[in-house]
Amino acid sequence: MKKSLSRIFILTERDFKEILRDPLSLIFTIGMPLFMEILFYLIFHELTDQFEMKYLAPGIVVFAQSFIALFVGLLIAIDRSTSFLTRLYVSNAKSYEFIFSYALSMIPIIFVQSLLFFLVGGIIDSSIFSINMISAIFVSLVSSLLFIGLGILLGSLCNEKSIGGISSIVIAGQSVLSGMWFPIEGLSEGMITFMNILPFRNATKLVENTMNGINDVYKDFLIPLIIVLAYAIVSFVLAIVAFKRKMKSD
Amino acid sequence: MTTAIKIDGLTKKYKDVTAVDGLNLEIYEGELFSLLGVNGAGKTTTIKMLSTLVKPTSGDAVIFDYSILHDEEKIKEIIDISMQETAVARKLTVEENMEFYGRLSGQSKVELNETKKAIYEAFGFEKIAKKQASKLSGGWQRKLSIALALISKPKILFLDEPTLGLDVIARRELWKTINQLKGKMTIILTTHYMEEAEALADRIGIMKDGRLLFVGTKEELFGKTGKTNVEDSFIEIVSGGQPL
Predict the structure, then answer these.
(1) How far apart are CA A81 and CA B40, in angstroms?
(2) pLDDT, tens digit (0-9, with 9 covering 90-100), for A128-186
(3) What pLDDT band is residue B241 in, cutting at 50, 70 and 90?
(4) How many whole angstroms from its chain centre is CA B27?
């Protein structure tokens, strides 16, 4: 157990450095969402409620997390293609240790994302500063599990070349199906049901409701939490199975 | 001579394809044994089975008293492998790569520093220690990849096509490095470069279609085929004496 924890820590440190030293990952996970947060607020907040900071900041936090799926997936796909992982298997490292390390290495980045986007949001519109913001930062760590799980799953299934295209489905899903960029009231009932079944809108609602206040614990918090966690758990289970299988076949 | 690896009827089948077919072989402690064969001969599959990365369909191999079927963990403690593809952490520096692998193998800080020092000297890493692995040339990356396999101080080192894709200078430099390792550990080297086996190997095994067609020293190989170099001898054995 002690050896296993030590290996997870060593692998996590390495994964974190690999991600941090890739300028593109920093641009897409932090730079670009931050730019969008400021720009979209300045352009649209007087035109529509959708872009008030109390909605925009939580939306951006979860949207930025969708890029985590891309970069964790890319790291795994590259590790597989270079035989890096195969070789580490000879050092007695186990599949679950790899999975844990990939997931844990993302947590500091996700924490920085949430903190930064909320803080900048608060600086632009100080009305969003409240104790709920701290809760929202921690709840956003839960929503991030969904994207980490999806990233590990896609990284286990795709190669270095295809991972970019495939994981953009997750990013597009979060962008379009979360309803963060447009009011969903005009959409058909079927479409809204579809969005409510998928995890993207629920992830955004979870963080947004936590920050803006929960009126109905069941509807505003528990339901989105259960849906997001269910997808996250399924993603992680499938990721572990896919990862193990791929490691054997690679 | 102490036996380091004893392979007994090792077989690997993938659906209809038999990658390795009833391999029997003994490899002695401290020797550099070279497995020769054309692409698809079963060299890499053999290495993967011996390093416990792939389970055999039948047969077994015993590595210093440990069975690849039953003692996977124990075997992993005494072996290391350098794969065909360069396997390094690309965004870490040379030094960070060494520390990463060293810590994973469970070495203490003091022990790791000593190992690092010895490897730096052997491979000439001092001047590139702070460089990111991805920014090194192909030859240096491959050197690093092999060096990382030495960090754990293995008793058995598997080198799978170590010079594949390298230019002639980088290849010769790597030969020099591998030569320095001879005698310090048992090395199993797969290659399809005949001159590589001729320059480095104490004994040679020739594989074709998963079967071992010849095992012996270069001299024994030349004696058997009547040729004077490994390439001609290899062709003679693999083609069964038929003109190509």
Answers:
(1) 19
(2) 999 999 999 999 999 999 999 999 999 999 998 999 999 999 999 999 998 888 888 88
(3) low
(4) 13
Beta-carbon contacts of B79 under 8 Å, excluding residues fewer than 6 positions away, are: A90, B50, B51, B63, B154, B155, B156, B157, B158
Three-state SS for B243? coil
Q: Is B83 helix (H, G, I), strand (E, B) or coil?
A: coil
Closest residue on chain B to A92 (Cα): B76
The per-residue pLDDT for range A211-232, each reduced to its tens digit, is 998 889 999 999 999 999 999 9
pLDDT of residue A106: 95
In the block, residue with structure tokens 């055999």: B56
Length of chain B, please? 244
Contact B136, B128 (CB under 8 A): yes
A83·B87 Cβ contact <8 A = yes
To which residue do tokens 């095994």 refer?
B205
- Cα separation, A117 vs A50, in Å, equals 17
Out of A3, A17, A81, closest to residue B92 by CB: A17
Angle at A34 between CA A32 and CA A37, to 5 degrees: 110
ipTM of the complex: 0.84
- From the number of C-beta atoms within 10 Å of its C-beta (0-12, 13-18, 19+), residue A205 rates as buried
- b/e map B116-143, b = 16+ CB within 10 Å: beebbeebebeebeeebbeebeebbbbb
Place of tokens 């597009």: A172
Token duo for residue B121: 């000297």
Q: How far is the C-alpha of B44 from the C-alpha of B53, rounded, in Å?
A: 11
A173-204 pLDDT per residue, tens: 999 998 888 888 888 999 999 999 999 999 99
Task: Give the SS3 label for residue B17.
Answer: strand
Residue of chain A with shortest Cα separation from B91:
A18
Residues in chain A: 250
Question: Which string of DSSP letters, residue by residue, matches A176-196?
Answer: HHT--SS-STTS-HHHHHHHH
Separation between Cα atoms, residue A37 and residue A41, nearest integer Å? 6
Q: Which two tokens stand for residue A166?
A: 């495939």
Q: Give residues 89 to 148 of A whose Cβ lies within 8 Å of B.
A: 89-93
The reported pTM is 0.87
